[in-house]
Give the backbone structure.
Amino acid sequence: MTTFSQGLWDSLMQGSPLIYPQILLIIIATLMLWPGDLFFAKGEKHKWAPVAFLTLALSGALIYLGKPGEGFSGMYRVDGLARGFQVIVILSALAAVALSQRTLNALREQTVEYYALILFATAGMLFLCGATDIVSVYFALELMALCFYILVGYFRTQNRGVEAGLKYYLLGAFSSAIFIYGVSLLFMATGGLVTNLAELGQKLPLVIQSNSLLVFGGVLFILVGMCFKVAAAPFHQWSPDVYDGAPTPITAFMATAPKAAALAAFLRIFGTAFHGLMDQWSLPLQFVAAASMILGNVAAIRQQSMKRMLAYSSIAHVGYMLMGVLAADTVLGTQAVWLYALVYLFMNTGAFAIVIHIQKGGQGERIDDFRGLGHKRPGLAFAMLVFMFSMAGIPPLAGFFTKFYLFNIAVQNGLTGLVVIAVLTSAVSAFYYLWVIRQMYFHEGGAEVEAPGTATTMIVTMACAVTLLATFFGLDLLKWAGSIGWL
């Protein structure tokens, strides 16, 4: 007779090949903290950056080489959806490590904990992409969030960063409590027996008649909790201040990787567990998507800080991607969200790489500081022009291609009203994106800008190339996106 401990051990051994990337990240991050921290003297902590970069690259290779499957008693699955969003997470983490060295060197803040936290956060996001049980979703969310709470307030001598970290922690804890309360309501509604997403999808339509209040309350609370995690309006209050106060490489990281991982969880929860309850959550989510697009774009117009402008812009982009979640009952909706998130990764990371290069002393940059960049650094200015035009959805750049594809799928799923709002707010977004371009090319002045370093040059060049050329390989991208879905 198999004992509980033996059964648990067998389950761990059978499922462990599915999480080799996460195991690698956690082991290396743990060793970096101790005894690895003893390997380099205080003035040589920057040498941990290549170690973190190599670890992330190896983790990405393991994701690519890994085989699909399900393990841990149905709590985790590797499939097209998981691997697609995990690629986005790894690429974003690699960029964050590469961009961090300039900022940390300028502030003399090179420490091993910084890179270890990035690895731990990445592991949490990789878990979140493949979580197929409400318990594993919550575990992954908290592992990811706890690391970001610290990273946001990492510069302890900067009051703005400490304030941002505290605000993020308080609102993050509040949103986690809302999420877990929703989970408890659904657990009660199903008789305290079901936490697996697929099983919830079968059970909830059967119990909604007898436990309608519990089911509706649980779905609503989980929706609110997930909207907090992706910074969708009106649950976005933490986002602008946190983005502005966090170290800029962490802001770039937060604007892409956690959103991609949370959207993967969004797609699984609402496309699997709540698929039969779409009438309960479709209308509230439509209001959230519309509010995100309107508030994000309108509020971004008034911003003078580049980081806050990009923060509000990211709220609007989340609103666009939520239309894909509303269409997630089709595989095309899932593919559209992934494709949009992938292209947004390159546009957003490239823009933040230029912001980091412009910075002096690690402080946030104003849009006015980009004055005359087109005359001083024409290469950087051209790249920023490409990113701004692409985010605004100007053809034939990649941003236009992904918006057109997403909007088309939304129309096919009867979301015409949302698409009209999306098109109108995209036109509004062109105002503040073009304002940055106007500062670069139609004004003179501003501080001198030194030549970009190797890491900045490579990231900006790659992001610019993808943004410029992705549209011409649109069919190939759609074919690649075809692998994103459930097995």
In short: The two ends are 34 Å apart (CA to CA). The chain has a mean pLDDT of 86. Residues 14-481 form one domain.
